[in-house]
Design goal:
This protein is of the alpha/beta class and 257 residues long. It has one domain (5-255): Survival protein SurE-like phosphatase/nucleotidase (Stationary-phase Survival Protein Sure Homolog, Chain: A, 3-Layer(aba) Sandwich), CATH 3.40.1210.10. The protein is 25% helix and 29% strand. The chain has helices spanning 18-28, 75-86, 107-110, 112-122, 142-157, 223-228, 247-250; strands at 5-10, 31-38, 57-60, 67-71, 93-100, 127-132, 165-170, 180-183, 190-199, 205-214, 231-237. The strands form 2 sheets. A 9-stranded mixed sheet has the order 3-4-2-1-5-6-7-11-8, with helices on both faces. Strands 9-10 form a two-stranded antiparallel sheet. Helix 1 crosses helix 5 and helix 2 runs parallel beside helix 4 (112-122). The radius of gyration is 19 Å and the shape is globular. The termini are far apart.
């Protein structure tokens, strides 16, 4: 008899997103699913936490989940609350997604999807962020869901290195069209940001964030380029903030009075 695992499912697109429903279904094949997710869209909030207003938790019913909660907070809030006060037992795995839109390169820094998985990492739990390379909410999620199942199953059955989360991006292809998996570093792709100046019906000025994403031509073995070539791109991510190479350069600052 196969072991049944306990899996925390979260996201940043909100608890009503098709992506989280697809991910919960995939994880239910591996064990008991517990959902803790924002009650609304929270994309690109990064690792922000709610500290200046109350957090409210509403239990909801969701297919494939033993328990599900909608929270008026950020993705990081949702994982922190689940692991700290909402779950009776520590889960075996934390998964975030399936996000609508790829989280490659610099997007990793801004992504609420990756931030939610990072909270699992900070609790020393195996954690995975899943994204589909399309913002279209009507896109077929079956291939992304199947790869989420396969990757999560492998992580649960192995002994993954601690201090690392997996950032997984799936191309918009049918399952049989995907060429396989590549484990690659993040690319150097970047956003050229702009803010569109607009006016409301009363003539008052406001701004709307916009921009263009530039995919770096830094070789096939990076997340953006593997994704473009039809592969599922997996990037192991960790967080070590110190730039050790720069320490000698700034040692002279110790002499300042």
């Amino acid at each position: 008899m196969e072991k049944r695992y306990k899996i925390l499912v979260t996201n940043d697109d909100g608890i009503d997103s098709p992506g989280i429903a697809a991910l919960a279904e995939a994880m239910s094949r591996l064990g008991d699913v517990f959902i803790s997710a924002p009650d609304r869209q929270q994309s690109a909030v990064g690792h922000s936490l709610t500290i200046s207003q109350t957090l409210r938790v509403h239990q909801v019913k969701r297919e494939y989940a033993q328990k599900a909660y909608a929270i008026n907070g950020t993705p990081s809030d949702c994982v922190k609350m689940a692991l700290s006060v909402l779950m009776d037992e520590t889960p075996d795995l934390v998964v975030s997604g399936i996000n609508h839109g790829q989280n490659t390169a610099i997007n990793i820094l801004y992504s609420g999807t990756v931030a939610a998985a990072t909270e699992g990492l900070l609790f020393n739990l195996p954690s995975i962020a899943f994204s589909l390379a399309s913002h279209d909410l009507k896109r077929d999620l079956s291939a992304a869901s199947e790869y989420a199942y396969r990757i999560a199953k492998n992580v649960l059955e192995s002994k993954p290195q601690k201090g690392v989360l997996l950032n997984v991006n799936v191309p918009v292809l049918k399952l049989e069209e995907i060429k396989g998996i590549k484990v690659v570093p993040a690319s150097n792709s970047y956003w050229e940001d702009t803010y569109e100046r607009r006016e409301d019906p009363f003539g008052r000025e406001y701004f709307w964030f916009s921009g263009e994403y530039h995919v770096a031509e830094d070789g096939p073995d990076t997340d953006d380029n593997a994704l473009r070539d039809g592969y599922v791109a997996i990037t192991p991510v960790h967080f070590k903030f110190t730039n050790y190479e720069a320490i000698p350069e700034y040692k002279h600052l110790e002499d300042l009075k």
